[in-house]
Design brief:
This protein has helices spanning 16-32, 38-51, 77-89, 128-140, 167-170, 201-210, 228-241, 245-257, 297-308, 321-327, 389-411, 429-436; strands at residues 62-63, 66-69, 72-75, 95-102, 106-113, 121-122, 263-264, 293-295, 312-313, 316-317, 347-348, 355-359, 365-369, 374-379. By secondary structure, it is an alpha+beta fold. Strands 1-5-4-14-13-12-11 form a 7-stranded antiparallel beta sheet, sandwiched between helices. It has a 3-stranded antiparallel beta sheet with strand order 6-8-7. It is globular.
Length: 437
């Protein structure tokens, strides 16, 4: 049996002004990372268009150009060249790297600029898919009384105002609890971004559960991205299992998959304290469920393979196919207010059927194509939040179509897919722009 270390926060009223300072800091950070002004967007759109015409790589880049996919040998040279062109035209990014997998093997790994294959990065919101995987694995554990459709008030041992909300609503951003759009008014809810010793995971969860935010909606009536609802889901799971959040991640993901560095922390107060090593990760005692994970290429590749092989890491079943499919059911697109195609952790592509992606505020992004049985993860290690949307645009509009075309060519599919430049809703952009205002 495992036990939680509970840190009691005394004199919570004294934290009010501290929380307001945190509100300003976090709001500036996330607002800046919300892809900038229209002028910046136009500039980067022009850059991305030019990237599509790049067809040659740099001798300093490391990665094979071909790999054996399910239907034959895939040629990754065009995707590699697009990344090279992106770096050459970027005033911000010094490196980028990516890995492509199917359900059984790594098809391709390539690093560009100053990246290396063992680079460890902070994921921001690209943490969301692994967070949901942890919740679903807990639900499947017959020794723990935890259900994604169970009101959290039946689990949490303290009084609160959100007791009728369920974990599935919380991690599909449809709980009605104000998301990042309301960050400036979060007040005591900002405890979820604090990594100082006096703020504990369960104590913060009690605050989130008991302090009602203004401008909330009825559960299931609105899509409202991110924020307190995700942290509440993690706290509920931890209490149900009588374990710390990272103990659950370790039990259900890290150990069965043999992950090297993957874990959750909380660096939002000071991103500059991160030096690229797991030892510099802070806030493990109050991890950010929606945005606190760190990873290397190999670890995230293994997590993606679970979605492509029916739920396995090696010979160990991590999740059932039913649970994996539940992550891809559109829950955010069927609400009345601000409907947005979203499952649980996965954004659902409306212009590329069968594709699901999980981008983060720093520019990292993971994706799967369930029709072709391939997936990928792209790493970014610049945390300045300048042009953070550019790598995500590149991957969604250029890289994924290039990989699909390479797969189709290797499989003998006659219809050629080409990169698209049509605009589509960027994850976090609308909600975070509203928060900035």
């Amino acid at each position: 049996m495992t036990y939680r270390l509970k840190t009691t926060v005394k004199n919570k009223r004294h934290l009010f002004f501290f929380h307001r300072i945190v509100a300003g800091a976090v709001l500036v950070l996330i607002s800046v990372s919300s892809y900038g002004s229209e002028a910046i967007a136009e500039r980067m759109s022009h850059l991305l268009s030019s990237v599509q015409s790049v067809r040659s790589g740099s001798s300093g880049d490391r990665g094979s150009e071909t790999g054996d996919g399910p239907g034959g040998t895939m040629d990754f040279s065009e995707a590699d060249a697009a990344f090279v062109g992106f770096l050459e035209g970027s005033p911000v990014f010094d490196g980028i790297s990516y890995v492509v997998v199917d359900g059984e093997q790594v098809l391709h790994t390539a690093v560009f600029g100053d990246h290396s294959e063992d680079l460890v990065v902070m994921l921001a919101s690209t943490s969301k898919v692994p967070a949901v995987m942890t919740l679903l694995a807990l639900e499947e554990d017959p020794n723990v009384a935890f259900r994604m459709d169970q009101p959290i008030g039946e689990v949490l041992p303290f009084e609160g105002v959100y007791g009728d909300h369920t974990p599935s609503q919380l991690v599909s951003n449809t709980s009605g609890i104000p998301g990042l759009r309301a960050l400036d008014d979060y007040g005591d809810h900002l405890c979820q971004f604090i990594n100082l010793p006096f703020t504990g995971f369960e104590d913060c969860g009690e605050t989130l559960f008991s302090v009602e935010l203004d401008d909330g909606y009825e559960a299931g009536s609105i899509f409202d991205y991110g924020g307190s609802q995700w942290q509440l889901a993690g706290v509920t799971a931890s209490i149900a299992a009588n374990s710390e959040w990272n103990q659950l991640v370790d039990q259900y993901l890290v150990q069965p998959c043999g992950l090297e560095v993957f874990t959750f922390g909380n660096m939002w107060l000071d991103l500059t304290a991160w030096d690229g090593t797991p030892g510099s990760l802070k806030g493990q005692h109050n991890p950010s469920v929606e945005g606190g994970a760190i990873t290397n290429l190999a670890d995230y590749a293994k997590l993606l393979q679970i979605h492509l092989n029916g739920g396995y890491c090696g010979d160990t079943r991590v999740l059932s196919e039913t649970s994996l499919a539940s992550m891809r059911i559109d829950r955010g697109g069927v609400v009345t207010n601000d409907p947005t195609p979203y499952g649980m952790g996965w954004w659902i592509s409306s212009d590329n059927p069968g594709v699901y992606h999980d981008p983060g505020a720093f520019g990292a992004i993971s994706f799967i194509d369930v029709e072709r049985g391939i997936g990928g993860y792209v790493a970014i290690d610049d945390y300045s939040a300048v042009f953070a949307g550019a790598p995500i645009d590149l991957v969604r509009r250029t890289i994924i179509p290039l990989l699909q075309a390479a797969y189709d060519a290797a499989s003998g599919v006659s219809e050629k897919r080409v990169p698209v430049t049509a605009s589509s809703t960027m994850p976090e952009k609308d909600d975070l722009n509203r928060a900035r205002r």
